[in-house]
Amino acid sequence: MAMIIELQNLNAPELDVFARLTEAQLRNRLEPEKGIFIAESPKVIRRALDAGYEPVSLLMEPRHIEGDAKDLIERCGQIPVYTGERDMLQQLTGFALTRGVLCAMRRPKLPSAQQICAGARRVAVLEGIVDTTNMGAIFRSAAALGMDAVLLSPTCCDPLCRRAARVSMGTVFQVPWTRLVEKNENWPGNGMKLLREMGFHTAAMALSNRSVSVEDPVLAAEEKLAIFMGTEGDGLADSTIAACDYTVKIPMYHGVDSLNVAAASAVAFWQLRAK
Description:
Blueprint: E1 3-6, H1 23-29, E2 36-40, H2 42-50, E3 55-60, H3 70-76, E4 80-83, H4 86-93, E5 101-106, H5 113-117, E6 122-126, H6 132-144, E7 149-152, H7 162-167, E8 177-179, H8 189-197, E9 201-205, E10 212-213, H9 217-220, E11 225-229, H10 238-243, E12 246-249, H11 261-272
Parallel strand pairs: 1-4, 3-4, 6-7, 6-11, 7-8, 9-11, 9-12, 10-12
Antiparallel strand pairs: 2-5, 3-5
């Protein structure tokens, strides 16, 4: 049975994990060595539980105890369930709970790229994606449109941060992902080396004189393809583009020069999915 605890003192140390969760503070709390992340909304929490993530504690409005979160409480077993009215929870967390439920969960150790790419034919490689909304949207597209895994450069934001996981609708727990290289490793050199050792050809999504259309049948014919998507605004680094086997563009109309990286990823993933 879960322990239902009505909030009386917002300064209680056991609530620290939920306190003042601005994006900056959340990222600080989600350093890997801290071992905790926050999942928001019943759907996202369910997908995390389905994927085997371990819950630590729940925070919710009273109406959810016998409502939207009843099954979550039953699934989570003997963990604390802190409850308070919406205004109190907003005072605690620093933001309005969109779906009225948060879950603190243990952060698992990241697998290696070799582990998650075993048997993969299409992987997305993200370079410098720092906007959490874009990160979540890319993961949702990756899950829906045939990517077998997502690999991150050292400068990408955390896919398990609250906003990214919520925007992804919990697909960050369904699509295998990891950092392709560590912060102190050479990028993109070591990443490219590892991808080639795993048998992948590489495609940089970028506009340049050497770009081929995303509809080029040569791309679809590749047995294993890693699709590189670049940071918001500047796109992929020149060194990354130069190191890839292909430079690929999405044809544009009406004078539009490019798409947001989240929108571009959806087009690229669908067109380049393994047939």
